[in-house]
Design a protein that fits this description.
By secondary structure, the chain is mainly beta. The protein is 11% helix and 45% strand. The chain has a single domain (8-126), classed as Beta Barrel (Lipocalin), CATH 2.40.128. The strands form three sheets. It has a four-stranded antiparallel beta sheet with strand order 1-2-3-4, with no helix packed on it. This is FABP6 protein.
Length: 132
Amino acid sequence: HGNMAFAGKYEFEGDENYDDFVTKIGLSSDKIQMGRNCKIVTEVVQNGNDFTWTQHFPGGRITTNTFTIGKEADMETMGGKKFKATVKMEDGKLVADFPNYRHTAEICGGKLVEVSSQMSRLVYLKKKKKTK
């Protein structure tokens, strides 16, 4: 299947479970306030597999991530943390593993839908065999 066309300017429309998510990933309360229902405009420039993903926050703050599908890139989180990630294309969705969550983006009905889900880690202890 072909590349989804992500290019465009998208205005924030709404969020679900925002507070729960940002608390879990450890955003400070002032950043949580700043991000709540804030009219972020996301601008996506796509040239084949190369992307420039810019978020314009009210008050003039801008976060820009530039990446190529399948290649490691320097990225920055909403909270300003720098990290390295490889963005992949899976079923028409852009998928990136941020430091403590997985982020996907897709175009649905002309809208940009971004989903951030916290990655859980399960650790199991090997049971010892009972000795008689």
